[in-house]
Amino acid sequence: MRKILLLGGSAQQIIAIKTAKRLGYYTILCDFLPDNPGQYAADKFYLVSTTDKDAVLKVATEEKVDGVLAYASDPAAPTAAYVAEKLGLPGSPYESVEILCNKDKFRSFLSQNGFCTPKARGYTSIADALVDIQSGFFKLPVIVKPVDSSGSKGVGRVDCTEEASAKLNYAMSFSRGHRIIVEEYVEKLGYQIAGDGLSIDGKLVFRYFANDHFNSKCVNPFVPISASFPYEQPKKVQEKIHNEIQRLLTALNMKTSTYNFDMRIDKDYNVYLMEVAPRDGGNYIPDVIKYATGVDLVECSVKAAMGERIETSSFGEPEGFYSYFAVHSLKDGILDKVEFTEEGQKHILENHLVKHSGDEIKSFTGANTTLGCLIMKFDSFEQMIHMMDNSEEWCKVILKN
Q1: How many CA atoms lie within 13 A of 235 on its CB side?
Q2: What is the DSSP string of 71-132?
Q3: Which of 18, 188, 271, 282 could be a cystine partner for 244, CB 3.0 to 4.6 Å?
Q4: Cα 227 from chain centroid?
Q5: Is 247 exposed, middle or buried (0-12, 13-18, 19+ CB in 10 A)?
């Protein structure tokens, strides 16, 4: 039986383990958390950090694996590429994956290759970043981010120099490599663009774009609470976005891989590739896409890691209106219940809440502080957009007194 090494065993990553088993592979899991739920789905488990490249390489070598996959994980994607390259397994170049997974390297690459990208600079020193912000090197507002975090953790916006120190320290606290990036804010036209895609031998053969939704009342208003499909802009705009992604994949010599997108267009329809992560999206985005198109991107990820042929002839055209919604709290506290109106309840296809009555919860600052996700279906585009932009009308998180 052929073996696949999977990096990460969170609740959202179990689907990759189950998909690999369904396809007939022996599943080996690495995760640094001793209580991860994925270990009970995998055939074999190692308590190893997915960001420890050499430790994961040792596991892969000893187990003689045939492929390695970091499903829906930015931090683990470079590890998967590193191991695959060392062992001659299927995958994209490690150097290219490193560029895509580190925001400062990615901004530099975009600038050097003629892509639209905001003025940006990476830092290991908060003091140096503060000097640049205060001296006028950047035009305010700026966005401050850890270069190596995922799920929008640690992201902040600086509108005046007085805010800079706190936001820089906040961003740095989420960086594993103690590196942050400061970049000028890009004014967007319409919704920020989310979605996932697939390349085969470097060609972008599938992509499905979505509208990102945010809650301005959150402590961190830059964390998406939803992605709704399909994207609002017409076909010609989407083709322009597609072409820019393809230009990037070609420049990086990417191979067969899935991707998660975070992009913007401005009023002149210039395309800004804010993030093109070489892995599937979190928050059940692949599941939402499967409902809308029939395309199973989880299966594609597993097959790509194992060097198996991916058949695209059955890929269907999108139909219907779907989204994920991250159930979230605006305050810290003890959860009493999550309450849905009758109208809200009838649009829920799948409920993946992981927090229950009596659990301690945190205010929503990143993907790690959600109460869980819903997969939803709507009757019209207008209904979908309204419900995702006004979630307080149908979903209430009630805390205990």
Answers
A1: 1
A2: TT-TTTHHHHHHHHHHHT-S---HHHHHHHHSHHHHHHHHHHTT-B---EEEES-HHHHHHH
A3: 271
A4: 11
A5: middle
Find the angle CA(118)-CA(120)-CA(123) to the nearest 5 degrees. Answer: 160
- Are 81 and 277 in contact by the 8 Å Cβ rule? The answer is no
User: For position 176, what pLDDT does the model report?
Assistant: 87
In terms of Cα–Cα distance, which of 90, 75, 69 is closest to 32? Answer: 75
Helices 126-135 and 164-172 pack at an angle, to 10 degrees, of: 150
This model's pTM is above 0.85: yes
Secondary structure class of 260 (helix, strand, coil): strand
Output Rg (C-alpha) for the chain, integer angstroms.
20
Q: Are 96 and 254 in contact (CB under 8 A)?
A: yes
Q: Which amino acid is at 366?
A: G
| Count of all residues that appear for the chain in the document | 401
pLDDT at 19: 98
Beta-bridge partners for 368: none
**C-alpha–C-alpha distance, residues 108 and 148, integer Å:** 15
Q: What is the pLDDT of residues 275-333, one digit of tens each?
A: 999 999 999 999 999 999 999 999 999 999 999 999 999 898 899 999 999 999 999 99
Residue 141 Cα distances to 82, 158, 183, 294, 295, angstroms:
36, 5, 9, 41, 39
8 A C-beta contact, residue 323 and residue 384? yes
d(CA 76, CA 152): 16
Residues of the chain with pLDDT under 50: none
Q: Report the C-alpha gap between 228 and 42 in whole angstroms.
A: 31
Q: What is the pLDDT of residue 46?
A: 98
Q: Which amino acid is at 373?
A: C
pLDDT value, residue 151: 67
